[in-house]
Description:
0% strand, mainly alpha
Amino acid sequence: MQLRIPPVVIFLFTACCMYVLEELLPVGYFDFFGRRYLMAALLLLALILGLAALGQFFRTGTTIDPRKPDRTQVLETKGVYSFSRNPMYLALLLVLLAWGLWLGNAFNTLLAAGFVSVMNKIQIVPEEKVLLQKFGKNYSQYCIKVRRWF
Length: 150
């Protein structure tokens, strides 16, 4: 699998688009009690998920490079991987949702949904094909038990 656009670039592009949308479309502005608390909770959850997922990869010595899933040494199924097959991407999504709350434009949720769609199509599905070839039945059973995002 040769990924041309790293996931972090897609994440940063989406975040920039969210900012531009907020600047150009102020009619979507919203505010509510606890908005900043929700934003902080999303960021904290993203940090916990992301660090836990990275930690598991480092402990098992498997690659964290999303462009080279064929270098994966171990099929992670425990810890944060027991409830999300993609906790690192989920962490990025949570950061985008928190960013959308910070910006306060309701239309940014559409861009966050677009991030999920793009990640599914150009990153996750190709990754899953490689992992299925590499881990076979174990990966297939894992996919049945654990959802892609959450």
